[in-house]
Write a structure and sequence with these properties.
It is built from nine helices and eight strands. With 225 residues, it is an alpha/beta fold. Helix 1 packs across helix 4, helix 3 packs across helix 4 and helix 5 packs parallel to helix 9.
Length: 225
């Protein structure tokens, strides 16, 4: 693992599984859709590990509907309708994230979010979490041509806050986050406390550092500022 030897100009986070624990809401939707069809519930932890793969993958997990099947998109939209109704009701920032954001502000370091979650869901979720101060930049797939693992969203985040990517941090809980951060030139931190699938190993993602808990992540960043 590399070390970051200067104060970062910006700290950019992935959203679900990195900054905010949203898994309980997705678990509720998966179990609801199964129940409505007379199917037994899945183990909650099985659903949790798949959250970072997005709504399409969760529909496949919940109902066995593959992306190429005729009903997949309709089921995915149904999934998102259910999710939108409960969005922000049980999600919580990971331990230490509110305090970290305040410390970054006190140190004069802007922070942002670069996520593959669409703005329709990301913006109200961030508002419900009441980070103080609010993020300086929220970049979603609505703002770019290419989503992660392409680096465009991270580069735009750095541009929005006036930071150089090579002097900025990017933190995420999926291999595509680290690929995007590395391609952007950021110092990358793999959040191994996030939604990691069985058989996946964040230590193999080629991140510059690894955080096994949100508290460890907060401490790691605090030592840089």
């Amino acid at each position: 693992m590399k070390s970051f030897t200067c104060q970062p100009e910006a700290v950019i986070f992935d959203l679900d599984g990195t900054l905010i624990d949203t898994a309980d809401e997705f678990i509720r939707v998966v179990q609801l859709m199964r129940s409505q069809r007379g199917l037994p519930p899945l183990p909650n932890e099985q659903v949790r590990k798949s959250v970072s793969n997005g709504s399409g993958a969760l529909v496949t997990l919940a109902l066995g509907s593959e992306p190429e099947t005729a009903d997949h998109e309709q089921l995915r939209l149904e999934f998102l309708e259910h999710y939108e109704r409960i969005l922000g009701t049980s999600a919580l920032p990971y331990q230490g994230m509110h305090e970290l954001v305040q410390q970054l502000h006190d140190a004069g370091i802007p922070w942002g979010v670069a996520t593959n979650k669409f703005r329709r869901y990301a913006e109200p979720l961030m508002a419900a979490m009441n980070f103080q101060p609010p993020t300086n930049s929220l970049v979603t797939p609505c703002d770019v041509t290419h989503a992660k693992p392409h680096p465009e969203s991270i580069l735009l985040s750095c541009h929005n806050v006036g930071a150089r990517p090579e002097h900025s941090l990017y933190i995420g809980d999926h291999k595509r986050d680290i690929e995007a951060g590395n391609a952007a030139g950021c110092f990358t931190i793999a959040a191994s406390y996030g939604y990691i699938e069985d058989g996946d190993d964040p230590a193999q993602w080629e991140a510059d550092a690894l955080a096994s808990s949100s508290e460890e992540l907060a401490g790691m960043i605090m030592r840089m500022i």
